[in-house]
Amino acid sequence: MEAEGVRLLAAGIAIGLGAIGPGIGIGLLGGRAMEALGRNPEAAPVIQSNMILGIALAEAIAIYALVVALIIKFV
User: Between the CA of residue 35 and those of 29, 30, 39, 43, 64, what are the distances in Å?
Assistant: First the structure.
């Protein structure tokens, strides 16, 4: 029964730490995009498409952490 508790703790730590980096990255990316839009509103389509791509790539890292946490929990 103790091994089950350790696995649950490891899964929680994996998703917790795995979500910190993408969360910070998405926040910085969104903030910098808003600064860029404030300085140059005419470049909105280019900035927005690059921002969405960056957010999607950062979110993929969080999804990898979720997959690792699920593998730890169920395998």
Answer: 10, 9, 6, 12, 30
Query: What confidence tens digit (pLDDT) does each residue in 22-33 have?
Result: 999 999 999 999
Evaluate the CA torsion angle 25, 27, 28, 33 in order and state its sign: positive
Q: What does the block give as tokens for 19? A: 């979500």
- Give kind and range of the element (H or E) at residue 9: helix 2-39
Cα(50)–Cα(11) distance, integer angstroms: 32
Domains of the chain: 2-74 (1.20.20.10)
